[in-house]
Design a protein that fits this description.
It contains 17 helices and twelve strands. The chain is an alpha/beta fold. The protein has three domains: 1-98, no CATH class; 99-230 and 374-419, Ribonuclease H-like superfamily/Ribonuclease H (Nucleotidyltransferase, domain 5); 233-371, no CATH class. Residues 260-269 have low confidence and may be disordered.
């Protein structure tokens, strides 16, 4: 059997035949000849008219521990659709790529499951090549089909770099995958998603879950006014925890100021020990009742006996958490009205401010309870995004990280070649 025949059988390249094989310091170089006479532009236009011919090389999967390169003469054509001179499409590589389709699929498959260093070491390529390949593969798989059946979506922000650098991530509540990601966390960032979605598909949205910020709310009001907005329960309870912590710090500072006024001849006051005790009560106030230790339960009991303002703050926080235990929205609405009245007359500044925020978002909070929507899937996706960013030791640009998010969290399935 001739060498060219053997390589034809081993490579199994469609639309080309092996004309020569050479061995050199860079590896194995296989020369190819195209069988097709018709030129095909990446846009789909076909012609027999050739503009010129170029010699090109592509990196293929290793063979016998050696790097394998494919070489062929490719033609260029003048495409009237693109209004430019384009290189013809070849069956073994994606348009404009310097790696074969099989090599790129293996790189993308490994990037889904391992860090870039592992992929680079095993396939003997560079980090920059892996980033370009991931962007190319994602661009081929991501299309408008992922936006067609959207009805309930969640929106959240993810920090990916120091200096307040954020990404906005949109996920499908029904499918569970990421459908869109963009740099920034402003109203304009989410507005770009709605512009890509289009007016007709925006009109089909039924519900959008988000945090209590005004940026995402403003963009949703403008582009998808018919969708019901749901306030994420996690962010609501987070605001209650922040209010408890503000009340604790205020109580601690008040005790310290009182201690300075009543300082004795030795420089110590009973208020000093009490201030330190209040300061160390933080986790007893913030943790849920089911996870409290015996010592933390003792702290709460002591606060109750002292009729401390911190115990009332803890009760208010737990009362707001109980809102999400109601199975029906009518009971939740009555509980919310009772809680708002209690928080308003509590005379705790942090909870008075929180009550105003909750009252302004009352409809969004009750909508989340009625529809059973939260951003829990978004929080899980945010953890994956941070893991992707960490195992890549950071990314040079937001676009590179967004491509990895689509690849790992966008429901893209990569089939290994010759499997």
């Amino acid at each position: 059997m001739r060498v060219t025949t053997a390589f034809n059988k081993m490579l199994g390249l469609e639309g080309a035949s092996v004309t020569g094989v050479s061995f050199g310091p860079e590896g194995i170089v296989v020369a190819l000849r195209r069988r097709a006479r018709t030129l095909r532009c990446p846009c789909g236009y076909t012609t027999r008219s050739t503009y010129d011919t170029r010699h090109r090389r592509w990196r293929h999967l290793d063979l016998g521990g050696q790097r394998l390169w494919l070489e062929a003469d490719v033609r260029r054509l003048r495409c009237p659709r693109c209004a430019a001179v384009r290189t013809e499409e070849v069956p073994w590589a994606r348009p404009g790529a310097r790696h074969t389709r099989a090599f790129q699929d293996v790189v993308a498959w490994m990037a889904q499951r391992a860090d870039k260093t592992t992929a680079c070491t095993l396939l003997r390529t560079s980090w920059e090549a892996v980033a370009r390949i991931v962007a190319t593969v994602v661009a081929e798989h991501i299309d408008d089909a992922r936006l067609e059946r959207l009805s309930r979506i969640g929106v959240d922000e993810v920090s990916y770099r120091k200096g307040h650098r954020f990404l906005t991530v949109v996920a499908d509540h029904d499918a569970g995958g990421v459908v869109w990601a963009g740099e920034g966390r402003s109203s304009g960032t989410l507005g770009r998603f709605y512009a890509e979605l289009g007016p007709e598909r925006c009109a089909r949205l039924e519900a959008v879950s988000m945090d209590l910020g005004q940026a995402y709310k403003g963009a949703t009001d403008t582009h998808a006014g018919g969708a019901r907005q749901c306030a994420d329960p996690f962010h609501v309870v987070k605001l209650a925890n922040e209010a408890v912590d503000k009340a604790r710090r205020s109580a601690w500072n008040a005790e310290r100021r009182h201690g300075r006024r009543d300082r004795g001849p030795l420089g110590r006051t009973p208020a000093d020990s009490h201030a330190r005790w209040v300061k160390h009560a933080r986790w007893a106030l913030l943790k849920g009742p089911a996870t409290l230790t015996d010592a933390q339960l003792g702290v709460l009991e002591q606060l109750r006996r002292d009729r401390s303002v911190l115990y009332r703050a803890w009760q208010l926080k737990e009362g707001l958490r109980d809102l999400y235990c109601y199975p029906d929205v009518e009971g939740a609405a009555r509980h919310l009205e009772w809680w708002l009245a209690w928080a308003c007359r509590s005379q705790i500044p942090a909870f008075v401010t929180l009550s105003r925020t909750v009252r302004a978002n009352r409809a969004r909070i009750l909508a989340a309870i009625e529809l059973g929507l939260s951003n829990s899937k978004l929080e899980g996706i945010a953890s994956k995004v941070r893991l992707i960013n960490h195992r890549g030791y950071g990314h040079r640009s937001a676009a590179a990280l967004i491509a990895m998010i689509y690849l790992c969290c966008g429901g893209i399935t990569i089939e290994l070649p010759l499997r």
